[in-house]
Amino acid sequence: MPDGEHTELPRILVTGGTGYVGGRLISRLEADATRLRALARKPEQLRDKVGPSTEVVFGDVADRASLDRALAGIETAYYLIHMMSNAQDFAKEDRAAAEAFGAAARGAGVRRIIYLGGLGDDDDPGLSPHLRSRHEVGQVLRDSGVETIEFRASIVIGAGSLSFDLVKSLTDRLPVMLCPLWLSTACQPIAIDDLLAYLLAAKDLPPGDSRIIEIGGADVSAYRDLIREYARQKGLRRVLIKVPVLTPYLSGLWLTLVTPTRSEVGRHLIEGLKNPTVVRSRVALDTFPKIRPIGVAEAIRRAIQGAASTLSATDATTGPS
Predict the structure, then answer these.
(1) 261: pLDDT strictly greater than 80
(2) Where are the beta strands (DSSP E) in the chain?
(3) Cα separation of 188 and 294, whole Å?
């Protein structure tokens, strides 16, 4: 093995590697034999989930020194940090985290930050705190002076994603559903494989200005359509009854009946469903002409298949009970 092979610094950093998107992104980058570093507040929780070639380092957005060490030698940094799941004032903490990361990235000479945010109209006075915070984080990263590519996406469909798990849990467990008006709001779901394709392709773009790129699947839909399509593919008969009085907050409480372990995150997600999250520009199509996202039915089919494969693997590992 040539001298110095192990001393060359990684060039790509992934934050949020213990999350749904981050974990899958690391696997794809490893498959490309990318020199990779993953940042985690609890490295021991991530080391067993990544390949031997990936360097796992401690990093906390509240600890500038740890960010400086993690970003040393990095050219491209994926920013997938989100405080929504563990903070009452997640917007304030998200802002502070982005400011710290942007400053450290600028100081380390990082060339590009790739950030995953959420769709939604900035001019909508009723934009949810969740989506407004997502947009603010993108602005903070751009203000750092580091070229930032901000992807804005709607619902992500894939086995294990919160959005799909909500659809799955609700549809599997509730034969009759009282459906508030937000279930009719327009959205443009994207399959996890297509989302990852965009994230991977962004690292190879030529240098340029910071930009916002709206991404979505082939279909404009509504959350109730996802429930109906999932039920159709699973052969379930489900009755959806429209009601005007079930507010997003009450809907979040209602979700504790079916998804208690992630109900707080689900409540924030639901608050965002009252806002249309639809792609309004052709930038993604023009910038990434080789990526042609699939539609809702195929995305759900793949998610169901992925969930079944995961369950089968778990059964094979644990054996009969």
Answers:
(1) no
(2) 12-14, 36-40, 55-58, 76-79, 112-118, 147-153, 156-157, 176-179, 186-187, 190-191, 211-214, 221-222, 239-242
(3) 11
